[in-house]
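Person: Show me a sequence?

Helper:
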Amino acid sequence: MIIAWALSLLTLLSMLVIQLERLAALEVMSINTYMQSQKEFIAAEKSLLECEQHLSNIRTLENSNCHIQSAGKNLWLISSKSKPSLEILVFLDAKTHIATRLNWRQKFE
């Protein structure tokens, strides 16, 4: 009876070790996914910032990493081509050619 009890205890301990290993592996995968998504988010934001800064000279942005469309009355919608897709609304002052970001959002598909 003691041998059966000891074997069941060892089985429970081995199952605990297996579950801890799985949990550690999932945590590592979670951290890697988080870091990768942060890098992609930062890259999308940098491409939007570049397009926003050069909005007054649209000709130089023809091969850019973002879509630019007019929203009327000196308002422009700029969205990133990469994932995650970000979109900003920018006001371009016609006299000073200074772009002012009004808002931004993440576009979900």
